[in-house]
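Quarterly update from the structural biology core.
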Amino acid sequence: MTDHLLTFTLEKSDSSISISYSDSPAGNQTEANLLYLSEEELLAEEWNDLPVMAFYGEVVAVHNLEAQFNSQIDYFSVIEFKIMGDLRTDKKQGEIISVRVLGHITEGGGTNTIMDTAGFLHVGKEAVIMPIQYDETSLYESDGQVLFLKEVAAGFEFMNATV
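Predicted structure, tokenized:
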């Protein structure tokens, strides 16, 4: 059983969903993958009608979470990323953003997903990231329930095969 350190209060999402901090995931790897993008897709300013951001910075915190949807438990992380350089938007140097990532990120790097990039992230790691920016209507569905993404991370997420 996973220890729960904090439970989120969800206002727009289905009321029976619970999101909690978790020390370690139970079960097997998640099957979600980051997408492989062509050069044209990578340099595009939008993906699936959502803006693609580009930041250089440092991971300052990793929060591993579990989401209980009816009988399904999904694992993901929220990284806090301190912007050292904004390559596409108007974010200021020193600003910290939160980015949702599928799967848990282990201490020192690594993940319980089959993701080639997110597993390299850990506290203190400097990187260029290109998350998508979602809005108030962006959601994640699992086991027939709906989670509004902004209730978990403040508007950014890695592009992956489940979005």
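The longest strand covers residues 55-69.
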